[in-house]
Amino acid sequence: AQIRYSIPEELTRGAFVGNIAKDLGTDVAKLAAANLQVLSDSDSQYFSVNVNTGVIMVSERIDREQLCGQNPRCFLHLKLAIENPVEFYRIEVEILDINDNPPEFPSDEVSLRIYELASLGARFPIQPAQDPDVGTNTLQTYHLSANDNFNLNVKARTDGGKFPELVLERALDREFRAFHYLVLTAEDGGSPPQSSKIHITIQVLDANDNHPVFDRPSYGARLVENSPLGTLVVKLNATDVDEGPNGDIRYSLSSHNSAALRQIFAIDEQTGEIRVQGNLDFEEATVYEIEVEAKDMGSPTMEEHCSVVVEITDVNDNAPEVILTSFSSTLSEDALPGTVVAVIHVRDRDSGEQGKVLCHVSPDLPFQLRKDYEHQYSLLTSTRLDRERVAYYNVTVSASDQGNPPLSRHTILPISLIDVNDNAPQFEQASYEVLVAENNPVGSVLVTVSAADPDSEQNSRLSYSILRAGGTDPGLDPTRYLSIHPTNGQVTAKFPFDYEQTTYLQFHVEVSDGGSPALRNRTLVHVFVVDQNDNAPRVHFPRAGEDSASQFRISPSVVPPALITKVVAIDADSGRNAWLSYHLVEATDLGLFSVALRSGEVRITRALQETDASAHELLVVVRDAGEPPLSTAVTLVVLVEEKGPEALQGSEARAADGGGLPTITLYLIVSLVLISTVSLVGLAALGIRCL
């Protein structure tokens, strides 16, 4: 059997479709016992059946336009299966359209360009609106906003489509209105109806239907004779209300003008400016009448004519002329005063006093004019030149006649000075002092020397080199330790410095320019090597092997604080890095012995007892004051014996004390004497000065 239902689209979930038990005439309880199942032909399960009530309900949103598109009728098919006995029922659900979609245009705006002279009745199609609904809910009609020039015509096709088009009912005039703004509305037949709008912008394209118009029928002007070339005579003004090429005006001299007049006057076709391009001579003509035409660029072109009357006034109309007979634009900066730079010839086409010409140059420049004879001058240098101070001169030669008012002409002579290598390079500093920590990395930059040369080009290209300074130890060749970049002056180290070998190094850096001959200069560089704590203290006494200890013997009856021995160490570093201190780190009995912090003397601190050991091992550490500190350890073995080695050991200790210290002691005494002497001399000088 087959059952048919009809429902509108877009029902909510759970909406009632039909009662299958009632429509099949079957008891609801039997349907539940028969294992009722609903099968759908589509991928989505749009419906469900309540087996307890037999009601078919909507389980998913149903969009008729998505399911069936523009088909006028839309169906969903279900199969109802029951068991005991097995039976199938076909259910057909018709989906009815509702007005849930408004008509929509492809875009919100559209632009049209229509020629100004378009024929009446011309049609301009507009993209139609689309409405996915069907029947009366789909697009039904269009409406056009009120306007003076266009009507709306709607074409209906056999498939029901409706296409709007604009019909020109009244002629367009771009000069009156260049743009028209219309609104087209699409409306469907639903209840209530839905609609959408599209804004139409119509640009009216210009046609050449207006000719140019001058702002006056004729123009007048006055000019003095021999006005300079390019002098503005008059500026014409014509307008054309058209646009684009149709309103683009070009000016020209009419063909009615003579060839001679065309050689004297010219007109700018863009601006309408008439300018002088030839010689105006009052003796030849006192009035010129120029015929001018203005044309637009339309097709066909339209034109207008006017006349320009130019009156010529007679004046002192010939300015002096300056002619360069000979001129050199370059001059060496070492040229002697009186060197000829240019030979100048002057003339004035006027006669009498108006034809006499005087020339001069600015007195602030190192140049002067010498009058050779009538109408000829020579330009000479008046003083020494220096390119580094002024490299370029603009020498203005002024020529004036004796007319009333006088006329003058100025000619600028550009003169460039050629550089001469007359300046030696100069270092920024007379000497450089550099502090370098020993063990510096190879290739590190120690100092950068810099020099400058006010000359130019090749004469200012500098090259640096290292030279040995006078009085330097011949064995300290600076080029062995250092290198310099020839162009940027960076001094770098070839090897690490060792303060214990070299504490000071001085050398010259020479800079030379690229001139011919080259000029040179030197600067002195002092390099002071700063000590680093890179040497551990070295024990000179007592001497022992790496894995052995020095032995000393004492008597059991020795009286404290008896001197057992003295540890003597030397540090190859200097300053604070060589300040040594002595420390007793380990001992068989720490309370029995002591080590002097600065002298290294090892002494017994109390009397020996029978319970004390017969052999004592002491570990003495010698540490410097560097950062970080370095240290060395020495092991001493003290043997307690009754026999005579005590006296022998005492002599050994004294020998060690006397043999290991004289040099150091002597240095200390000499230093103390020198310091005292300098202090006394200073105090005496201060006292004398006060007296």
From TrEMBL:
<keyword id="KW-0812">Transmembrane</keyword>
<dbReference type="Pfam" id="PF08266">
    <property type="entry name" value="Cadherin_2"/>
</dbReference>
<keyword id="KW-0130">Cell adhesion</keyword>
<dbReference type="InterPro" id="IPR002126">
    <property type="entry name" value="Cadherin-like_dom"/>
</dbReference>
<keyword id="KW-1133">Transmembrane helix</keyword>
<keyword id="KW-0472">Membrane</keyword>
<feature type="domain" description="Cadherin">
    <location>
        <begin position="546"/>
        <end position="664"/>
    </location>
</feature>
<keyword id="KW-0677">Repeat</keyword>
<dbReference type="InterPro" id="IPR020894">
    <property type="entry name" value="Cadherin_CS"/>
</dbReference>
<feature type="domain" description="Cadherin">
    <location>
        <begin position="215"/>
        <end position="322"/>
    </location>
</feature>
<dbReference type="InterPro" id="IPR050174">
    <property type="entry name" value="Protocadherin/Cadherin-CA"/>
</dbReference>
<keyword id="KW-1003">Cell membrane</keyword>
<feature type="domain" description="Cadherin">
    <location>
        <begin position="106"/>
        <end position="214"/>
    </location>
</feature>
<dbReference type="InterPro" id="IPR013164">
    <property type="entry name" value="Cadherin_N"/>
</dbReference>
<protein>
    <recommendedName>
        <fullName>Protocadherin gamma-C3</fullName>
    </recommendedName>
</protein>
<dbReference type="InterPro" id="IPR015919">
    <property type="entry name" value="Cadherin-like_sf"/>
</dbReference>
<keyword id="KW-0325">Glycoprotein</keyword>
<keyword id="KW-0732">Signal</keyword>
<feature type="domain" description="Cadherin">
    <location>
        <begin position="323"/>
        <end position="427"/>
    </location>
</feature>
<dbReference type="GO" id="GO:0005886">
    <property type="term" value="C:plasma membrane"/>
</dbReference>
<keyword id="KW-0106">Calcium</keyword>
<feature type="domain" description="Cadherin">
    <location>
        <begin position="428"/>
        <end position="539"/>
    </location>
</feature>
<feature type="transmembrane region" description="Helical">
    <location>
        <begin position="664"/>
        <end position="688"/>
    </location>
</feature>
<feature type="domain" description="Cadherin">
    <location>
        <begin position="6"/>
        <end position="105"/>
    </location>
</feature>
<dbReference type="GO" id="GO:0005509">
    <property type="term" value="F:calcium ion binding"/>
</dbReference>
<dbReference type="GO" id="GO:0007156">
    <property type="term" value="P:homophilic cell adhesion via plasma membrane adhesion molecules"/>
</dbReference>
<dbReference type="Pfam" id="PF00028">
    <property type="entry name" value="Cadherin"/>
</dbReference>
